[in-house]
Every structure is written in C-alpha cells, then in structure tokens.
Amino acid sequence: MTVDDNLRRERPPAQLDGPFTQALVRTRRFFTRAQISDDSRTMYKIGGRQADDFYRDRWSHDKVVRSTHGVNCTGSCSWKVYVKDGIITWESQQTDYPSVGPDSPEYEPRGCPRGAAFSWYTYSPTRIRYPYVRGVLLQMYREAKNRLGDPVAAWADIVDDPVRAHSYKAARGKGGLVRASWDEATEMVAAAHVHTIQKWGPDRVAGFSPIPAMSMVSHASGARFVNLIGGSMLSFYDWYADLPVASPQVFGDQTDVPESGDWWNAGYLIMWGSNVPVTRTPDAHWMTEARYRGQKVVVVSPDYADNVKFADEWLPARPGTDAALAMAMGHVVLKEFFVDRSTPYFSDYVTKYTDLPHLVCLSDDGDGGFRPGKFLTAADLPDHQHEENAAFKTVLVDALTDGLVVPNGSLGHRYGDAGVGKWNLELGPVEPRLSMLEGDHEPVLVSLPRFDAPDGAAQTLARGVPARRIGDRLVTTVFDLLLAQYGVGRAGLPGDWTASYDDASAPYTPAWQEQITGVPAAAAARIGREFARNAEQSHGRSMIIMGAGTNHWFHSDTIYRAFLTLINLTGCQGVNGGGWAHYVGQEKVRPITGYTQMANALDWTRPPRNMIQTAYWYLHTDQFRYDQFGADTLSATTGLGQLAGKSTADVIAQSARMGWMPSYPTFNRNPLELADQAAAAGQPVADYVVEQLTTGKLGFAGEDPDAPENFPRVLSIWRANLLGSSSKGNEYFLKHLLGADSSLRATETAEGVRPRDVKWHQQAPEGKLDLLLTLDFRQTSTTLFSDVVLPAATWYEKHDLNTTDMHPFVHSFNPAIPPPWQTRTDWDAWQTIAAKFSELAATHLGVRRDVVAVPLTHDTPDAMANPHGVVRDWKAGECDPIPGVTMPKLVEVERDYGAVGAKMNAVGPLLDSLGATTKGITFDLATPLRYLAQKNGVVRGGPADGRPSLQRDVHVCEAILALSGTTNGMLATQGFKTLEERTGTRLADLAEEHEGKQVTFADTQNAPVPVITSPEWSGSESGGRRYSPFTINVERLKPWHTLTGRMHFYLDHDWMTELGEGLPVYRPPLNMAALFDEPVIGDVSDGSSGRVAGVTVRYLTPHNKWSIHSEYQDNLFMLSLSRGGQTIWMSNADADKVGIHDNDWVEAVNRNGVVVARAIVSHRMPEGTVYMHHAQDRLIDVPIAETSGRRGGIHNSLTRLLIKPSHLIGGYAQLSFAFNYLGPTGNQRDEVTVIRRRSQEVEY
Amino acid sequence: MRVMAQMAMVMNLDKCIGCHTCSVTCKQAWTNRSGTEYVWFNNVETRPGQGYPRGYEDQETWKGGWALNRRGRLSLRAGGRFKKLLTIFSNPKLPSIHDYYEPWTYDYSTLTDAPAQQHTPVARPKSLLTGENMKVSWSANWDDDLGGSTDHGHRDVMLKNLGDKVKFEFEQTFMFYLPRICEHCLNPSCAASCPSGAIYKRTEDGIVLVDQDRCRGWRMCVSGCPYKKIYFNHRTGKAEKCTFCFPRVEVGIPTVCSETCVGRLRYIGLMLYDADRVLDAASVTEPHDLYRSQRDVFLDPNDPAVVRAAEQAGIPRDWIQAAQRSPVWALINTYEVALPLHPEYRTMPMVWYIPPLSPVVDIVRDTGHDAEDKGNLFAAIESLRIPVEYLAELFTAGDVAPVTGVLRKLAAMRSYMRDISMGDAPDESIAAAVGMTGSALQDMYRLLAIAKYDERY
C-alpha cells in the first residue's frame, strides 16, 4: 500500500473523464439490475445471466470417451473425446497419467494442435463415406463378370488384356471414382488377390501399413491377412529413413531410447537436428522444465528452429555437416579426457561396455602399408581356436597379466552349449588394456580414409598406432585406431598429426570443422568439453536428442556414429539422464511379442515374408534405371575394391542371393509352382531350388525387376499415404508403378554404367501394379490414385491399443461413436476381405505349398554365417550355395487358402507348440493361451475350432496384452529366467514385482497403464524409475547383441572397410552436381543455355508444424493457422537473388520433378537452403506447374531413392537382418533444386 | 477497502513452445461455428510480429484502452461515452476483416466427386465470406515463426521505440511466442465503451462477459479493447469474447486453454483486490508506475485484515483459501516474476506473463565463457538474444528494470538448482544475489518446474 496511498494524498479521487460522462454512465443504473461501481467505471452483475446459457449449452455434453490418434505420430497422447447427441464435438487431452513421482513434472497433458484438430475429419467433406472404385475399371469388371460369371476370371480378363489394363491404369489420379458396395468392392479385391497368387505367386502381393505401436490391432488386421496368404509386408522404419542404421551397427539393437521423462534427469542436453517443440510437442515441456534444474541446453540446427528459443547456445551448423562438428568434439574429448589425463569414470566405462580394448589385426595392404583389418578372435589363437564359435569371440589384453584374454559376452558365447552362463560382461579379475602403447609395442603407420574434400572424394590419411605382435599378426586396440582416426597424437607415433585445435588442415580438429560447418572452432571445442565435463561430474548424465535433421541424410549412419562416439566415450549410455535420444519415426510396440504373433500370423504360419521397402521401390519404381554412378563411387581409397564395376541394383541383387537381405518377389517363378515342381521332381524344395539356381534355370526376381513375372501386382495400403507422403521419388512411382501421368524429367542411365548383373530392358515398363487398394477415412494422393478405396473408421470409432517410447504407458482407443456411414474398422474391413478371399480361394486355389526364402536373421545363430564379415558370393564361385549360410534359407510352407478367413479370427495352434520368440528369447505361452481362451471365448467349428477368438478388435487387444511380457508380468519373469540361464547373471528380479500382473483391455480403458520391465527391451522401469535404454546391460552386465557383446566403435565387415566406415568418419552430403549434373548450390541462372531458371539451393523436407506427415495438412484448422497450402521456406538472401517476395508463387524444379508452392521468406532461414516441410500433399491448393503442364507435385516429387551399399550387409553379428531393424534407408536430404518466381497467375 | 475476487491467469512465456494447441482446443470448444470463423478467443503470436489482428497494439490508430486527459483523469482513448454516442453509427476505429483475415475453406468434396478429367483433382481455397476462389494472403497466424519477416517484420508496433535494436538478420534472429486471451481487466475499457451496458464483470470472480441478450452490436467494445479481444459475430450481430470458460471454471475445471496447454505454462488462480482503489491505480501519471500500482491494488490473502474484510464482503471461505493458495498470487507477488501485458493501456489486465529467458548472444559464447558459470550468469542476462527493451515494451511500459529482475531470478534459479541436481551443496549467495533465499528459490522452482496439475490451477 505504497504508491497508491501517496497518490491519493496528492490529488482528489480519480474520476472518469468528465462530469457529463460521469452522469451518463451513471444512468446505466436505471436500465439494468447490475451493480455499477461507485466510480462508475465498471458494472458488476449478479443474477440475470440467462444470456450466458448459450455458452453453458455449448459446453454441455453427453459423454467423454478415451481415445487417441493411431498412426503418423509417436506422441501416444490419451485424449478425451466429447460426444453430444451422438455427435463428436471436440477433444481435449486426458490428464490422468499415473504419476512419475513427487519430485518431477508429470506427463499431463499430452497432445498437440494436430491432435486437437483431429475430430474435424469425422464429418469433414474429405471424409470417405462409402467404398469407391475407379469408374472405368468397375465398368469393365461388371461387364467381364457378367460375361464370364466368375469374379476371378473377370479380373484376369481385364488385367491380362494390355489394352484394357492400360485404360484404367492411365486413368489413375484423374478423378472418376464411383461408389460401389462393400460386397462388390471387396469381391474385386479378393478376385485380384486370388488371380495374382494363382498366376504370379503370393509374393507378388504386398501390404503397407506403418507404425504399429500407434494402433496395433489396426496394423495387424491387414498384416495378418497378407501374411496368411504369403504376401510381403513392406518395412517402414528404414523406408521412412527414420531407422538409424548406426543403432544396429553400434548397439546391435533396432532402436531403444529414453522416455521423454528421462530428459529431466539430464544435466546437459544437446538437441541435434531435432526440433523438439514441433516434432515432440507433448514432450517438449520436459526440456523447458529441466532447464530450471540447471540443465544446460544446446541446439545444433542450420536454421533458427523453434527449439533454439530455449537454448543456451545455438550452433548453426550447415545442413548435413553435423558429423564434422561431432568429430571435432570427439577430438577434444579424446585429447582432454583420455590422452592429456585419464578420466577414471570414462576409462572404466569404455573398457567394460565398449569394444575399445578389443584387438584388431592390422592388415598388410601389400606395399608395406597397413590398414585396420579384422577383429582378432579366439579362432586366431592356437590355445582357443577349437572352442565353440571361436571366430565370434573377440580378444583383449589384460593389463594386470599382459596376457591375452577371451572375455565372456561376445557373440560366440550367445549360442552353443559351452556358452551357457557365459554370455555376460563379467570380467572377473581382468582389467582390459585400452591401448597397446602400454607394454611392448611397435609403432605402425596405418592408412585411414578421409572424405572431407568439398566434393566428398575419397582420400587417405596416414597415422600411426602402437601395435603388438601376436604370432604373425600385428594387432592394436580399437581405442588406438580411434585416436588415430580422430587425429589425437601421442608421443612416438608416426603420421600426419595435427599440431593444435587451430590446425585447420587435418581432420578432426575444431578449426578443421569450422571450415565445413561454419561453427566457430572455439564453440565446438567448448561444447565438446562441457558435454564431457558434465558427464564426468554426473557419471553419464549428458544426453543428445537427435532426429530427422541429422538422420535423413544418405550418410546419416556416419553422422550418428560420430554422435554415439561422444556419448559412449563419456559413459552416458545406459545411464538415466544420459545417452542418445533418437526421435524420428521411432516407435515402441511395448507389448511387442503379442503384437508380432498377431500381425505376422505366427500362430498359424511361419516364416512371414517381410520386405525392405526401400529396395523394393528402388527396383519396382525403376529408380535404378536413372542412376548415373556406380556403387563404388562411394568407396574409400583404403577399400578392397569389392564394389568395383557394380551398380546399386547389382549390390541389392548380391545381398539378396547371399541371404543378407530379404527379396520379394524372390524368384522369377511362382513359388507355388516351384514347390509343385520340386515335388514332381521328388526333391526337397531347398535342393530343387539350389539346383535350378545353379543351373541357371531359375533366377532371382531382383535380377530382372522389369520382367512382367517379377512385377508387384497387388498393393494394399492402410493407415498410410504412400503417394502423398513417403514415396521418395514420387514421380517415378506415378510413371513406372502406376502408369499414371508424371512430371519425371530425369534421363536414364547411360549404357556404360548400367547394371552388370541385373537385366536391362530397352523399354522401361509403366503401370506394373494391377491393383492399388487403400483403406482410409480421408482423401489423399494415395486414395486418388487407387483403384479401390474402402471407407475406414477414424481413431474415434474403434478399439485399439497404443504405446510409444516417449512414455511408459499403454492406453486405448475406444469408439466415441460407431463407424458412421459405410465406414468400417480396419479389423472389420480385413475380416470382410479375408472372408471374401477364402470363398473364392477355396475353389480357385485350395491348399498349396509355398517356398519362402528367408534371410539370415538377427538374434539367431544365422548371425554367425559369415566369420569376420568376409563376403562370399556363391554366384561368383567364391563358395557353394548353402541355404541358411551363403544364401537364404528355403522353407516350405503349407497354405490352406480356403481357411484364411477362419484363421484371421482365432489364435492358431503354433503358439502352443513353438511359443513366441523375441530377440532370441522364447516364451512358453501355455498359461496365457488358456487365459485367452477363457477371456475371449473360443471359436466353434471350422478350421479354427476350439481356438481363442479374435473375432472382435477387443479380442486382439486382449491377445496382445496377454502374450507380451511388458503387459503380462508372468511372461516377463519367465523370459528373464530363460535369459538368466544364458547370462548366468541375476535378472528376473527386475520383473518379479509384477509377476502376478496381467494388464487387461479394461485397465487401458480406465487410464494409461505403466508397463512391466521385460527382456523384450533393454531398459528397466522397475521400482517406478524412468526408462533409459541399455540400463539392464550396464547394471546387470547383460551383453549387447553385437559381435563383441559390447557397443561398437569399430565395424570390421568387408563392405564397411570398402566404404571406409570401419571407424567413425565424416562424409559430406552427396554432391548432386557431380553425381547427377545438377547445378551447384548458389548457382543463379536466367534460364539461358537450356538450364532451368532460378537459384540452386539445398532442398530439405523437415517435419511440419501443421501436419504429422500429410495427415492434418488438409485439416482446415491447421490450414487456417498456417499459410493454407503448400509452402517453401527460404532465406531473404536467396529470395532476393531471384526476386521472390513472401507469399509469391514459386516453382522448384530438378530432374526428379516439379513443385508449385508459395514462398515463405524469412531471415531465420540460412542462405542456400530451402525447407519444404514434409508432408505436403497435392490435394490442397496446388496449381498446374508451368514446367510440366501438370498438377504440381508433393514434397517428394523432388527427391528420389539412393541406396547405401553398407545398409545391405547381412548375416554377420549385429549386421544381420531383422524387419524394420536393418535395411537401406529411404533418405532424401541430399537433394538440391532450382527455385524461381513463377507467373503469379495460376491455373488449376 | 472493498474486497473483491478476480479469476486471473499467468502464462510462463519461458516455457511456451508456440504449438497453438490452446488456440485449437479453444476454437473447437467455443468458436467453431458460423459467424465466428475468423474468431480466435485464444491466439498465439510470434514476436517480433504483428499479432492478430495485425498491428492491434498501435493505439495511435485504434485508440483502444484508457489514457489520462489533460486534467489527469482517466478517459477512454477513443473518446468518452458521449463521443461514442455521437459516432455510434460510424465507428472509425474498427479493424476491418482484413486486419484479422478473410476466413476460408476448400472445396474438399471435389476430391471425391471429380469426374474423370485431365488433372489430379485439387481442393481450392474458397472465401467463407464470399464463397469465391481466393489466394490466401493473410491469416490469424501469418507471421508464425517469423514467416515473412523481411517483408512484414518491421510493422511490429513494439519496434517503434527500439531503434535498431531488432535486426531481421540471420545471425541476430530471436523469437518467442505470446499466447493471448481476454485480459478480464479490473478496469475494462470494453465495458466502459459499451453504449448498451451489455458488458459486465461478474461480481464473484470478475470474469468479463458480453450479455448476449443486451448486446446491440454497436462494436464500440471492439474499438475500446486495446487488446482487440472482443470480436463481432457477423451472423448474430453480437459481440463475443473469451468467457474464461466460466461453465468449466464454475465447476472447478480449468479453462480449456489452460488444461490443454502442453507446455504446462498456464496458471489459474484467484486474486483478491480492493475495488475502491482500481481507478486510482489506473490513473497514476507515470506509465512506468502502472505495474507497481496494479500490484498494490491486490490484497494479501494471508493478511488477517484482508481475510476479515473478505468475509464481510461475503466472499466464501473456500474462495479465500483459494486466493491464499493461488499460484497467480505467488507468481505476481511472492516471487515477483509475472508482469502485466501492456499496463500502459491502463485497463488493469489480469492475464500476466513471465517473460522468456532466451539464449545468450554470440558475444558471450564466442568469448569462450560458459553461460552456466555462476559468475557469467547475470552478464549473460544483460546481453540476451531477445532485447530486454523489447520485453519491457510489452510488459512494463518500457521500464527494463522489472524485466531484468525477473530474468535474473530465473537465471539464479537455474544456477542454484544445478548444484543440487549435480549432487553438490547449493550456493546461498546465488539466491541472495536476486534478493531471495534458497528455500524461496526452491519453492519457486517447484511451482515453475514441477508444476503439478493441482498446483497450476
């Protein structure tokens, strides 16, 4: 009461502006029952508020239903859906997550504007209410069926007639969809499947639906059908380029990351290429709040991204150069924390948990020089060479005895009798020696690869390592090699060492990185030092959140390995509050075991045909026909020349025939016929196939993808928008796969560089696909180009389950309203299709035998198929073709096609006899299956008589929950006990606190339910702690699923050596000018001399603030809050060069296609780079392009697929295939485009 | 002393991620209907930027709020009530729809209905006002994330007094978000502007509402509100505004915008104030004094005299207790970290803001200093990426001292808590440097960082 009192003393009471006004406003008293303040300033009102009823009515509702959003996003936010008079009105976030503790923020609320706008779709004019079929196709089908009397014959009659097939394929994407009934539409779909299986083989059928964690039952619905008939399910994690290949390389794990609540525990946080407020909206608060605990926050981003606002430091590294910055930080960490002084926490950590002390042979490259070779293994030691799996047991030196030790825990201990109880990280009295510099050694000069020239050209560095002689071998440690690679010198070692941090000439100093990234050398050094110092003080609580900005590059695996080096050197992985936090497209089906059985139909038939989608489309959309360089373009000078003369398509074919990666369609013959022919020949199928292959009578489909017998014929898409979102090389899809109009401008591969092993057809096929089926609730590019569109229920109209790695809860979808109009849930729709299919298949197909080619698989003894990662190609005569060793396993499977519908609806008997296996642990399911039979009831009659029911979506939810350790404590405990036998360490206590707990669907309807610690994952939630990956490995000494059983800095596979990526290395973005003759970034052309007019810029497609992929991009709320259509962000510097102003119409053109959009010009963008946020579909306000005369494209019209050969490695330790675990990525960041202001008069 | 109760809100801009969830959930719940297509009771602005409607802070143009006249008396900037009556049929100070934006939709049904044709079907934007095709050229959030900054950024009204402190250059980029709802002012100029007496403040909680029966659609409130948070429903012909979600608040649920705020940055609480002193406080001569004078209107709910007076005024005991545990009271008064938005409008706004702490400028970084070092902490504050002067233009009528004071407290909290988080003994001198104790810093940390649901509301 100070200022005011003084004021009051000084002057008369305050009044309104004049006596007249005063009088006037006082009259209000007479006209209202309200109370006017004494000073007449304002009016208070008591009672008489009937007029407020409007707002009260508006707020009232009949019920609130829990649900969420089931694909596209890993947010996994539980929502309240409000319903009034049977109409969904709006949604708001649930706030009832179980508490994470009194001293921490909570997960409430979770949600974002995209989710908050979702209910718009329910009644929107883009809602698909009825089944639709392409009009011209439907007409032909009706005519043919009428004429022939049989759906299958009718379908065959159309698709086998080139003229009629062309007539409907060429009409794709051009309107003309007409309504059909469910009966008729699904009959066509069923007929197409039957015909395709009969004529071409079941592996010519494919299904695509991503991200099962977000709605497991919806995903499993179609997947179960596709797997039951023997079709191929296409991967998504690698296809989206969200799979960080560095994760299997380093951790031997697909991806395992901390929940966002663990960010809270970090003392130092770098957000590196991950724009958390936009892409992890519901989690971002953990970051903002952790700052209040004193967490330091650093952002590395080329633009002033949304998260820079929160950062203490912003390092604007140029796009794609992140590895250079990380390598320089690693240089500082190695020098200051390992060489200048020893840091006990770090050295203890790296010797226990990483491969740094393990020995590597130096291989003599013939002219007196050496390079890093293979890991020294027990097989190389006379005393150990006869041990079981000796080639898969690595070796180190014990500092105490100076003797060689074969430690427990490596891959060789994981399998076989001798390893029982020894697959662990116990070192006993051994103290691994980190460097050979201690003890007897000789300095050896080693050749190391470098790629830091602006054009990425391969060069060589020569740096010395201390080597020890063992027999006739020179060996050193991974640590010594790492120091050499990073350029951290030590006295007495020869080579090109850098003098100081300021030495810009040699990799990988801070000054060296400054020229590449633009980040000041001092800043790079300081942040690296701070990161490590924080880790040292806090014992590992330094974290890097990394995402699409660094993970969508061609060389992202090298970028990530540079990050992981920082993390692992500083002892941060497997520590709460530390380590990597990879968030892009990562998703965690927490109840993984149950989900996998349902989706892969492993309860009825094994193995499934799971295909790597990137390679699939690279071949089947003929993008390989437009390559202008060979696979060896990427090789290092220190490589072995193994890729010489090969095209990328050749490398894919080689990987497939060696059994490394899957390949479907597999052979150039119907696999059903192959099985029949083997039977006719009286031979086991595998023998017959090998014989046919070796005699050249049979070939791999991937060696001739343009032959009609090898086309994909039927593709079903649900929960996805392939053609408006993820199809890198969109125009190639339109042209070759669909036979539709396209704006493709690229030239085909010149004769000299065409594939050597893969057959080249003079004329590229167009319109390979016979049927494109889509199930969706809204129109997308995919539905507009589809032949049959089925109306799907939305996420507010069905039951399902949802989990994520961002939080530790499982929660549910529930129908707020029943599916309206003629929409159906995915489970219902696929049951309908399956029933129809079985009806037709019973007579047309009957019971058949199928030959499935299975790649060498991770977490099985297949990982020991290739000792030392040496490439052996049977086709080149380097070895014999032995199924399961040097080529795929060949498994014969019976398919009762008439029973598919019945099998969809019940849990099959294989689970009783074989159990379920996840990450190498087999679960005995007898008890949960008994429970399920009672919980769900059983099916009576037919092929599934007496089996637990899956007729309703809720039944599948219960099955998933009952058959997974994370939701069934009995299974978690059982799994740990099984694992204990192999590791010999104590684990089961992690789950025992919940041994009696069975999460039911009703539990998940009530509130989000915390999951149970299970051997299905690498971290622990026991005792209510936050989930951080690999804490079980660190705390319980359980090995990683790698060669050494430790986290790997070094990869000794032949092809890694070939690419110069045995150790972390910096590789710049691909040089599109050199590879594809695109203009150089910064080039400005006026359009003369046949060049495209405009400025050339780096073209990036980061995640969008207003959409999660293309969903929500068409949502009126999101469009109203943004610019209302396709946009490209660019810097004012680039805009000025070509006269572009904010909101001008622009065209972006490169060889892959053309985009028409409006420009957003802003100074927050760096010069030389534009952003067209992913995903912007062509459906909303996209005019005709001047360049092509056709509808402008999508963000992926300017991209295409480029495959990195090292992603195709298989059959060797952690570099072994598993679905969505390892495979070539559909990266799209290295692209450039020319952008210009176009005519502002646009036509549609 | 005449004790009254007021529902109030504090938004911690330091935690705002600019996601606009609040805008969407509010719109879905309240203004997703015809006549209010362009209306966002809650909007989020990127600053620097023009806001919505564009340039609304330019009171030279819009004449919103109050000003002191020559006699030192408070008068509506747009002219008194008498003048209002004279100009009732031609209000010149009304933003046009283009100052908001022309709302639009798309002909989505084309996507389904298009006959076989040459090109892929596309949905074109159609004006919701005219039904005609249009090129979308402005929206409620056009300059989100600095979009169009080089063409439009200089029109940010706040830049007038800042000279060249804000440059639209890559290296100097900064931004933050400003979510806005109705301020539910203690001295609402909208209510004073209404010729029909249709705008009133609810006695029990001070929520400002438009009586939908009484409103005659004169739109003087639209002009009178300097925050432009009253909107004209062109279908009903009535004014509409944020209701502070009274149907929810009445039954103990937070407002939609608060509960759905994923940044967890909104606090709702009850404030007790002396209604007799509002006009005095709004009439202080010096704009810099308005922040302080408004705070002095608030009554300490723990003061026995205030409690007695409140009881006498008929305020129920549980309301008094709510005022005592009010996070808004704590943030405004106990910790003094929340500031009013544009106090110079003299409306005594009741939605307050904690200003954003933001990255240190390159100068500090390039000198090799660690901004987390305690010694550097405050040096860093003085050279924040967001100019303190810009924040002062928003929150303290240009007075930088209170803004700096808040930022120093936030920085001190981070520094103090870091020691605890790293397992070290806390350094009490850090708390003392900002005039606080360690335990007060820890309490403030609990409210700002832990921020449990039942402590935010």
Automatic annotation (TrEMBL), chain A:
GO terms for molecular function: oxidoreductase activity. Its cofactor is Mo-bis(molybdopterin guanine dinucleotide); [4Fe-4S] cluster. Its EC number is 1.7.5.1. It catalyses: nitrate + a quinol = a quinone + nitrite + H2O. This is nitrate reductase (quinone). Residues 62-126 form the 4Fe-4S Mo/W bis-MGD-type domain. Belongs to the prokaryotic molybdopterin-containing oxidoreductase family. Its main location: membrane. It is an enzyme of class 1 (oxidoreductase). Keywords: 4Fe-4S, Cell membrane, Electron transport, Iron, Iron-sulfur, Membrane, Metal-binding, Molybdenum, Nitrate assimilation, Oxidoreductase, Transport. It comes from the Bacteria.
